Amino acid sequence: MKGRILLDTSFLLPLFNVDIKIEDFNELFPKLIRQFEVSYSPLSLVEAKWVFLRLKRRGIKYQLEDYIDGLKYILNSQDLHHVDVTTPEIEEAADKYIETITDYFDRMLYASSLVYGMNLLTMDNTPPGTG
Hints:
This protein has 5 helices and 4 strands; from the N terminus they run E-H-E-H-H-E-H-H-E. It has helices at 25-35, 42-57, 64-76, 88-95, 104-116; strands at 3-7, 36-40, 80-82, 119-121.
């Protein structure tokens, strides 16, 4: 049985043509989805658009079509699975970390990973209580 991973938004950004400074990402990502059951939260799609627009406002040249193309790829992928945006269980888990994980998206992704029993693949510091 494959291990289960929930992707942090950072690992979806390259699919929108946003560089996350991971060497060989285009080689590593296909290996990841072959070796693991990989999921994402629809919240990450919202956060990705927010990041995309924020970078564009800073003068970084991105085409809005890159977001649409990435969105189509993710939504049509047989290898990427989505979890629910929220459930009562996710909300209860997230509320336990409201003081320690101040970023809403990070908190919801972490709570989702706990509820679904997945490892959260993130570039952020280790969430509280995990080591």
